[in-house]
């Protein structure tokens, strides 16, 4: 479950990529229902790892992106299956796994752990059946390339600007929870908006916060550190089997509730 906690930060960095931000803007109802994209996508993406037919599911996800292309607001061409663009979406998930392990897990990763985990994320990426050309050879190369994209390629796309606005100020008109109706959604918003902001901004690489003037005070850092500590200590008391069951059950439930609303490319 902890590997989902940096997910909002990963999503922000996806939207900051020019090609992904443009695709989300032009081929989804992101500005009307930004959280719907998360609810529809996350169960499908995790199924590429957890489901027995994960490889088949990964190819289906790839094929959904075949028609996603065009020109962005600066008239630059983009396509979802352009190798560097498709890799960046996965790179944020790779980063998310490491960020979760390093921030919310009580243990410490060794150098061998880093290389093994990175190799596993490469195997995960290979399931999509797209070009492996952009994939760095090892974890050190991945870190270097990831930092370079954060420093040079990411920009404040319209989709990223909207997501940052919601994260900073909230929105009474946007549904956060995929089920339960307006009353439950309002209650959920009161409970999770502040922690979600701390997680989204606190997990971001400092260079991203600095480049895009994302507010982050010493008090924010202290509260984020306390939240991370609470997670590390709390999960010490949760049996691994229950942790895995909770993740799978949640993903199955959200997947079932959102299946009818999944993206369907134009004929």
UniProtKB/TrEMBL annotation:
Ranges of residues in domain ER-bound oxygenase mpaB/mpaB'/Rubber oxygenase catalytic: 4-230
A Pfam family: MPAB_Lcp_cat
Molecular function terms from GO: oxidoreductase activity
PANTHER family with a match to the protein in the record: BLR2777 PROTEIN (PTHR36151), ER-BOUND OXYGENASE MPAB_MPAB'_RUBBER OXYGENASE CATALYTIC DOMAIN-CONTAINING PROTEIN (PTHR36151:SF3)
Name of the protein described by the UniProt record: DUF2236 domain-containing protein
């Amino acid at each position: 479950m902890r590997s989902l906690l940096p997910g909002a930060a990963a999503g922000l960095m996806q939207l900051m990529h020019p090609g992904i931000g443009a695709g989300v803007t032009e081929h989804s109802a992101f500005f009307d229902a930004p959280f719907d994209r998360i609810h529809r996508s996350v169960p499908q993406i995790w199924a590429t790892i957890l489901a027995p037919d994960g490889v088949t599911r990964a190819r289906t996800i790839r094929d959904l992106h075949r028609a996603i292309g065009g020109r962005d607001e600066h008239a630059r061409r983009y396509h979802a299956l352009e190798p560097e663009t498709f890799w960046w979406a996965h790179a944020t998930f790779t980063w998310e796994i490491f960020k979760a392990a390093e921030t919310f897990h009580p243990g410490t990763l060794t150098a061998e752990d880093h290389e093994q985990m990175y190799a596993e994320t490469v195997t995960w990426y290979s399931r999509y059946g797209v070009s492996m050309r952009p994939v760095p050879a090892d974890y050190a190369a991945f870190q270097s390339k990831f930092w370079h994209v954060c420093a040079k390629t990411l920009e404040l796309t319209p989709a990223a600007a909207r997501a940052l606005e919601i994260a900073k100020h909230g929105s009474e008109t946007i549904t956060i929870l995929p089920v339960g109706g307006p009353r439950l959604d309002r209650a959920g918003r009161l409970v999770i908006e502040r922690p979600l902001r701390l997680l989204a901004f606190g997990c971001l690489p400092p260079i991203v916060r600095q480049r895009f003037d994302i507010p982050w005070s010493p008090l924010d850092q202290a509260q984020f550190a306390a939240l991370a500590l609470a997670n590390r200590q709390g999960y010490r008391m949760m049996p691994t089997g229950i942790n895995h069951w909770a993740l799978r059950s949640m993903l199955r439930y959200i997947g079932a509730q959102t299946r009818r609303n999944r993206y369907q490319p134009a004929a």
